[in-house]
Amino acid sequence: MNAKKQPVILNGLPVAESLKEPLFSSIEKLASRGIVPCLATILVGDDPSSATYVKMKGNACRRLGIDSKRITLDTSTSTAALIAVIEQLNNDPSIHGILLQHPVPPHIDERAAFEAISIDKDVDGVTMMGFAQNAFGAAPYPSCTPAAILAILDYYQLKVEGKHAVVIGRSPILGKPVSLMLLNRNATVTICHSKTENLSDIVRSGDIVVAAVGRAKFVKAGWIKPGAVILDAGYNAGNVGDVDYAECEPIAGAITPVPSGVGPVTIAALLKHTVEAAERLSMAR
C-alpha cells in the first residue's frame, strides 16, 4: 500500500527573500542619485494589532535600507484631518509610498481616505484606480497580500491555469483583488462571503483555496478536497490563521503555515512596490 504523499509546506520566508534580494541593487542605484526610497505609514488609533503590523513594516524597511516615516494619529481624528495628512504626504517628494493601516476607527470614511492617496504612491493598491488597474492586469502596485499569494504560487511552481480557485472573503484589498489576479492567470474563480449558501460544499470543490475572512480556524478539514492548495491569508489572536492548520494539513497537497506563510511575503511585496515607486517617481521628475 502506497504511503500518503506529504503536503508541501509553503514557507513564505524564502519567497520573501526572493522578492527582496533584487531590491538591493535598485536601492544602491537610487542612492547614487541621492534618493532613498521612503514609505510613510499612517496609524489612526491605538489598535494593538495594527500597531504591531506598522512596527513590523518599519523594521523591515530599515533592514533593507528603506526610510520609514510613521504617522500616528489620535482615535478621534476626523476624516478631513486624515485626508489633510495624506495630501501632505502626496506633496512631499521624499515620500514614495503611502500606507494607511486598515482598519481605521468606524467614524472615519475609510474609502474617502484611501481615495486621497496619490495613485503614484498607492503601493498597496487600495484606491479604486489601483483596483481597476489590477482588474486589467496592469497594476504596477497590486494589493500586497494578493501579490504575496501569487508570488507563493509562482515560487513553488503551483499551477493556476485551468484550476478552480475558491476565495473565501470579498474585501476590496484582499478577496476581490486576489480573485481578479487568479482570473487573469486563467483560473476559474468562485468568490464566497458571509451570505454564501452551502459554503463548505463550494470550498470542497476548490483546487486552490484562499482563506481571507479574519476568523480563527474557520476552514475545517471536511471542507477541503484532498490535494488542494491552501493559502491562508488570515492572522488572528494566538498566531493562528483562518484555516484549522492541524486538521487541514494532512489533507492538503500544499498549505501555508501561520505565521511564516503569507505574512512575510506581504511585507516583501510592500517593500518591492515602494522601491519601484521611488524609481518611477524619480524618473518622472
From TrEMBL:
Pathway: One-carbon metabolism; tetrahydrofolate interconversion. NADP(+) binds at residues 169-171. The keyword Hydrolase applies. Its EC number is 1.5.1.5, 3.5.4.9. Keywords: Amino-acid biosynthesis, Histidine biosynthesis, Hydrolase, Methionine biosynthesis, Multifunctional enzyme, NADP, One-carbon metabolism, Oxidoreductase, Purine biosynthesis. Signal peptide: none annotated. It catalyses: (6R)-5,10-methenyltetrahydrofolate + H2O = (6R)-10-formyltetrahydrofolate + H(+); (6R)-5,10-methylene-5,6,7,8-tetrahydrofolate + NADP(+) = (6R)-5,10-methenyltetrahydrofolate + NADPH. Residues 143-280 form the Tetrahydrofolate dehydrogenase/cyclohydrolase NAD(P)-binding domain. Residues 10-124 form the Tetrahydrofolate dehydrogenase/cyclohydrolase catalytic domain. InterPro entries: Aminoacid_DH-like_N_sf, NAD(P)-bd_dom_sf, THF_DH/CycHdrlase, THF_DH/CycHdrlase_cat_dom, THF_DH/CycHdrlase_NAD-bd_dom. Belongs to the tetrahydrofolate dehydrogenase/cyclohydrolase family. Homodimer. Catalyzes the oxidation of 5,10-methylenetetrahydrofolate to 5,10-methenyltetrahydrofolate and then the hydrolysis of 5,10-methenyltetrahydrofolate to 10-formyltetrahydrofolate. This is Bifunctional protein FolD. It comes from Paenibacillus solisilvae.
